[in-house]
């Protein structure tokens, strides 16, 4: 005969072990918070903004030229992240990064149909992130003239260090919330498993369901009064059933 579990039984299993669920949730929150604040290294980011804009011979803006500049952003993205630019930046700043490592810390973003794109650099040191971002934009602006034979790159905004820089990662609040949810789910699973594998008889209904013995009567627990010794009756619940 297949075993079935009702919603009432599931709710009772959670209610009986709610302390375990809360304890695991709090423990997981403490672990997540400790790792976020004391183990993970904070990462900061800084950005520069580049404008692609080249005027025609009459010093007038040309729409077709603007569209051409927009289409060049993907090409410029590859040039910026290439060894031709990054090796010069590494040598100039005497960085300990390799080209591949520095490449992974660089993000280039642009809006659709916009001539402006940003160069964002991530680093464990907020000041170094600013220095690297500015060095990349300056090197790119100087070298693109010889690489592409164009002069349409301008630094629209340089990176600046803030008074109280905020790391972009880790996010302690988010990690703590995730830790709470993980601990809560683990607590629920453990509560279900403990209840599922608990084969002890807890009440008269269990005796009737599992043993098939009708219960004739029960003796309820009698609360212990002050002054009585511990051997007093009332500490146990006695049930009588037919054999």
Descriptive key words:
elongated; 243 residues; 4-stranded antiparallel beta sheet; two-stranded antiparallel ribbon; alpha+beta
List the helices and strands and how they pair.
Layout: H1 7-16, H2 18-38, E1 44-52, H3 63-71, H4 73-80, H5 83-93, H6 99-104, E2 106-110, E3 116-123, H7 126-148, E4 153-157, H8 172-196, H9 204-211, E5 215-219, E6 238-241
Antiparallel strand pairs: 1-3, 1-4, 2-3, 5-6
Can you put this structure into words, describing what you see?
Residues 3-93 form the Polysaccharide chain length determinant N-terminal domain. GO terms for molecular function: protein tyrosine kinase activity. InterPro entries: Bact_polysacc_biosynth/exp, LPS_length_determ_N. This protein has 243 residues and is α+β, with helices and mostly antiparallel strands. Helix content is 50%, strand content 15%. The chain has helices at residues 7-16, 18-38, 63-71, 73-80, 83-93, 99-104, 126-148, 172-196, 204-211; strands at 44-52, 106-110, 116-123, 153-157, 215-219, 238-241. A four-stranded antiparallel sheet has the order 2-3-1-4. A two-stranded antiparallel sheet has the order 5-6. α2 (18-38) runs antiparallel to α8 (172-196). Residues 233-238 have low confidence and may be disordered.
């Amino acid at each position: 005969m297949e075993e079935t579990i009702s919603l009432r039984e599931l709710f009772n299993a959670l209610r009986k072990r709610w302390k375990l669920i809360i304890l695991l949730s709090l423990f997981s929150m403490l672990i997540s918070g400790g790792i976020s604040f004391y183990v993970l290294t904070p990462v900061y980011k800084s950005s520069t903004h580049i404008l692609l804009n080249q005027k025609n011979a009459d010093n007038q803006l040309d729409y077709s030229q603007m569209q051409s500049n927009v289409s060049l952003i993907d090409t410029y993205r590859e040039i910026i992240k290439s060894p031709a630019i990054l090796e010069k930046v590494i040598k100039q700043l005497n960085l300990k990064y390799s080209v591949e490592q520095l490449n992974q810390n660089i993000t280039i973003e642009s809006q659709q149909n916009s001539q402006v794109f940003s160069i964002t650099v991530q680093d464990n040191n907020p000041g170094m992130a600013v220095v690297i971002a500015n060095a990349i934009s300056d090197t790119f602006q100087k070298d693109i003239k010889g690489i592409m034979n164009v002069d349409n790159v301008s630094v629209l905004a340089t990176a600046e260090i803030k008074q109280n820089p905020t790391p972009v990662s880790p996010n302690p609040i988010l990690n703590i919330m995730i830790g709470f949810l993980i601990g809560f789910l683990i607590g629920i699973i453990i509560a279900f498993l403990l209840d599922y594998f608990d084969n002890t008889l807890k009440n008269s209904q269990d005796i009737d369901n599992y043993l098939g013995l009708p219960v004739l009567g029960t003796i309820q627990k009698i609360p212990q009064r002050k002054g009585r010794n511990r051997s007093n009756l009332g500490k146990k619940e006695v049930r009588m059933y037919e054999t």
